[in-house]
Every structure is written in structure tokens, then in C-alpha cells.
């Protein structure tokens, strides 16, 4: 019997998030011939993103565009999602989301609602007949666990930057606009306060991360890292040491109590390499460390190390990359 696979897509600044394309690819890889794939996009002013989404989905793209869905609120998004489910002819077996702030919050609510299990933060998957085995890191990346969902299906969240994004399809999907019925809410949003952070590229999805630690010495010192990140079209991250010192916003913190990033290149500048920092970046494909202390523990996990003053090394790198 054919099954229905659902991908809950997300937008950022009106654009489709890269992790949603990765979730789509995971769903396409997991499903069998004849299974249905449906994408759901919730938000406001999302016509550009929904048109973009149709390029990657051969099936239906369910769109709920409403001012109340402008920013994420758990109960409102959950209500919108269940209304979108009602528009499907059958209950989906597998639902894929990004392992983002929204995915981490919405996923378990959906799992509880449908009475199914969840596998979170997957970094790879293998399909063996009807079985799909998902791999997820444990203990801050020191071990990996392989898991599969029961035949009843379940929820899967995808760690950004680990699964290849979906390719465009030959026959684009069909947009199905849905009405949104506001739930009786116990809360009202009075005002959205958006903290300004320097990131032009989303930190968790960036292919290159230039990260600064206490060695950067000041908020001003982060400017040299921003210039290198701009030259490489990457994002700026930080250690908790740098955040605690007030050099940058906590939104940039990478590590055990911050964000987990797995970019293709991670450039650690003036970061000692404490275990709690490694928990957030040690799965990066290539690690480059710049530190003036040759004994700094970061060099133990680095693929390339530069012993030197970051204020001399980083501008030289920026100058060279600008020429490329
Ligand atoms: P430091 O350890 O002070 O290192 C600064 C480095 O800069 C040194 O190696 C020094 O040689 C180098 N340096 C100085 N000047 C220069 C220069 N001019 N050029 C080049 N190099 C220079 N930390 C995190 O990062 N993320 C977390 O999520 C996190 N969670 C934590 C959770 C808990 C429960 C605890 C207890 C700690 C946590 N920490 C976390 C803190 C962590 O233990 C370290 O204290 C922190 O990572 C240190 O930050 P740092 O490397 O920037 O600073």
C-alpha cells in the first residue's frame, strides 16, 4: 500500500531555507516508488518561497499564508499544521522537518498528536528495502546511533548541512492554498523584538564558518573575522568565552550550550578548543585553527593549524581570498 511522506518546509527572510531542501531530499530518498510526497509551507508573504518549493516537489505543495503565521508560535503553528493535515486524503506515515528552532519545537508536538515516534537531528540515512536506517550523533558527536522508525512511521528532523539538498524536478509541484482558522489562543503576541546580529548567512546552514574566541579581545576585533567571512560568503560564529566577554551576541555561540554547526570549513580564530566548544563544531569537514599558543587543544582536532597572531593572519587570508 502506498504511503504519504510530508516535508514541513521553512522560510527565512521570505526565502526557502536550505535545510528544507535537505529534508525534501531525505524524504525522497526514504520513500518507495508509488509513495506520495507532499510539502507543507506555513508563514506569511510566502508566495516567492512557495513558487520556489514547487521546483523541488513533484506532488502537492500545501500553502497556508496568513498574518498570524508571520512568526513562529507553538500553538498557532501546530493548529495550522493539523489543519493542513486535514487537507490530505490519508494520514502521513513519515514527516520530515529541519532540526531548527521550529523543527525541534513542532516535531515532538506532531509526534505526540499522531501517537508516533521521532528520530531527531539525523546526519545521514541508509535505505535497505523498505527499511530506512537513520544515523544521529550522540554525546556531542563522540558516538553515533543508528535507528529506524516502526512501520507506523514517525517524525524525522534533519541536522542542517549534512544531507544533500533536493534537486529540481522535471514536472513542478502544484500549489494548493489552504485557509487558516485561528485557534482559541491563550497567548497574544504584542510585539516582535528582533535582535540585530551581524549574520548575513545563516550560521547553522553556512558552508564556511569563521569563528572567534576570547583571543579576539573585543567587539571591534570581530570586524576582521566579519571581513574574512564576507570574502568567503560564510557566517561568523563565536566561542562562549567571546560571548561571555560581551564581544558578540549569544546567537553566535557554538558549542554544547550553543549552536551545532557542520560546515565544510570551520576557521577557529583565538579559540582554545575547550571540550564544550568542540561539541558544536568537531563534525565540521575541515577545521582550520589560528592560535598563537602552539599547545592550544584546538590544534588536536584541526586539519590545518596556523600558529600566529590572528590579527596578522586573518587580514592576510582575507586579502588573498578577495583576489580569488
Ligand atoms: P579561552 O579558553 O580563553 O581561549 C582563548 C584562546 O585565544 C587561547 O588559546 C589563546 O592562546 C588564543 N589567543 C589569544 N590571543 C590571540 C591572538 N591574538 N591570536 C591568536 N590566538 C590568540 N564554550 C563554548 O565555546 N561553547 C559552549 O557551548 C560552551 N558551553 C559550556 C557549558 C558549560 C556547562 C561549561 C562549564 C562551559 C561551557 N563553555 C562553552 C565554556 C568553555 O569551557 C570555555 O571556557 C570556552 O569555550 C573558552 O572560550 P575561548 O576558547 O574563546 O577562550
Description:
With 324 residues, the chain is α/β, with parallel strands linked by helices. Helices cover 27% and strands 27% of the residues. The protein has helices at residues 18-30, 47-54, 74-86, 101-114, 222-231, 240-244, 275-281, 298-301, 310-323; strands spanning 4-9, 11-12, 15-16, 36-43, 60-65, 94-98, 117-122, 124-128, 131-138, 143-147, 154-158, 174-177, 208-212, 235-238, 265-269, 286-291, 304-307. Strands 7-11-6-1-4-5-12 form a 7-stranded parallel beta sheet, with helices on both faces. Strands 14-13-15-16-17 form a 5-stranded parallel beta sheet. The chain is globular, with a radius of gyration of 21 Å. The protein binds flavin-adenine dinucleotide. Flavin-adenine dinucleotide (FAD) is lined by residues 213-215, 239-242, 253, 255-258, 270-272, 274, 276-277, 280, 290-293, 296, 309-311. This is Electron transfer flavoprotein subunit alpha/FixB family protein. It comes from Paenibacillus puldeungensis. Residues 4-193 form the Electron transfer flavoprotein alpha/beta-subunit N-terminal domain. Keywords: Electron transport, FAD, Flavoprotein, Transport.
